[in-house]
Amino acid sequence: MALVTSKELLLDAQKNGYAVGAFNVENMEMVMAVLAAAEKTKSPVIMQTTPGTVKYAGLDYYLANVKAAADRASVPVVMHLDHGDSFEMAMKAYHTGYTSIMIDGSKLPFEDNIALTRRVTDACHPGGIPVEGELGRVGGKEDDLENADENPYTDPEEARTFVEKTNVDFLAVGIGTSHGVYKGVPRVNVERLSEIRALVDIPLVLHGTSGVPDEQVRDCVSRGICKVNYATDLRIAFTKGVKAYMQENPNAFDPKKYSARGMEEVKAYVMQKMEVVGSIGKAAN
Ligand code: 13P
Questions:
Q1: Is residue 1 part of a domain?
Q2: I need a surface site. Which of 125, 128, 167, 213 has the fewest CB within 10 A?
Q3: Which DSSP symbol is given to 175?
């Protein structure tokens, strides 16, 4: 089927109390592996690229890969811009044909974040493309984006105002997660999540989920998270598979051979996370 937007998928997830996994893809093999996991589990799926990834090959290359996956798929597939860092970047993704856009103004002062996000929703909505905004901070490092904020939590009242003023479709919240590899065991502030959910009635998004214990993710989904982002662990899984293959076959030189092992690792990881977020069998919804 053709690529779909994230709007219907996330509204269905919100209505029925599950979340859709959003997986960062870096190359064609990761796209193929994520799709294979989605097909096997009959899960709707979001594939996404950060501006750092886009710099590597270009929006058009990634879109072409994910579009090919969607065309072969029996499950709904979304192509999402993750952490769009400027109005221009968001517009480039929109015009290239991405079917879901994030504008991340979370580093800006509150009013400036509102203004930037509103500008993007005003530009994307007439074309039917939904927009994810971010308020509060997700810590850590996501490609080129680094965040070391002392107080990362989203304020629930601010969240309500932000959603009203920006007309945003989904909201990424800061509740204690970080991008990248955690140093200790992360502790997600689920009470804060529930406080936000009580005031904001749109799908909420969890970033920085690699390394968060599955039980905490399930708890977040039960409290209103409808999109769960995984990036770092997919990179680790792919690389682990490639390394294992090369250790066993040090003279190997065919990328198809060692990449196949990388894909197996990514597929297994993604299938397990689809179970955690509750999207298994939801493709038919
Ligand atoms: P992780 O790299 O921690 O999984 O974060 C993913 C993410 O939030 C992408 O936006």
A1: no
A2: 128
A3: S
